[in-house]
């Protein structure tokens, strides 16, 4: 009866008399409905977080791999574009070299034509003897700024492992510059010679005549040598470009038969005027 009274009293004031009721064990609490609900909720949260973490990891890894593939693909695409762009630039440079070589060949061809015409006119007028300077007139219409191959063009040939050809073009630059200077010096002094002769100064006149003869002989000699050198370069260019670009017939530059014929005629003129042929 006393036990029943104490239980009833403790149930009325549980907070004041907690020690009245023996505390429940953890095992008892876990096996209760509330404990099982709590444990299942906690396990669900832990498992859910773990699964979510694994899923997030897999998604992140897949995204990382996708980004890496896209990045690698983009790099390859950019690289292909860069290679294609550089190839176009190299081809443009090669064409510039070829066009300049053709222009220089035509200029030399025209200069030989001027000298041949002057000699023919002099022979037709009865002036068949004497130095070639007597027959050569001043040559106008020739630029004082000769064409030359740029450092970029020469660097391209070195980059293409065509160093021999690059060195030849370097030498050709010097040859063309020297020939152009000689032509303009001759033309200027040839035009000024009548004034010198009009002074009546015999000694000065002989000096100027000797200068004109030396200049004319040097021009003819140099032009003959340079034209042959130019023809050799024109023969090498197509093969060099084909090697560089792994293509066939990238640049075709055939010297017409008229060029060889004019060279032969010019050679005979030099021999007729006792001008040494260097090539």
Features:
2 domains; 279 residues; mainly alpha; 0% strand
Descriptive report:
With 279 residues, this protein is mostly helical. The chain has two domains: 2-75, no CATH class; 86-272. It has eight helices and no strands. The protein has helices at residues 2-12, 26-30, 33-124, 132-135, 151-159, 163-198, 202-245, 257-272. The longest helix is centred in the first third of the chain and has 92 residues, at 33-124. It is rod-shaped. It starts with a helix and ends in a 7-residue tail after the last helix. Residues 12-17 have low confidence and may be disordered. Keywords: Membrane, Transmembrane, Transmembrane helix. The chain crosses the membrane at residues 37-59.
Major sheet: size, sense and barrel closure?
none
Shape designation: rod-shaped
Oligomer: single chain
- End-to-end span in angstroms? 144 Å
Write the element-wise H/E pattern from the N-terminal end onward: HHHHHHHH
Q: State the helicity in percent bands.
A: over 70%
Low confidence ranges = 12-17
Protein structure class:
mainly alpha
Quickly count the helices. 8
Radius of gyration: 49 Å
Topology:
Elements: H1 2-12, H2 26-30, H3 33-124, H4 132-135, H5 151-159, H6 163-198, H7 202-245, H8 257-272
Helix pairs in contact: 3-7, 3-8, 5-6, 6-7, 7-8
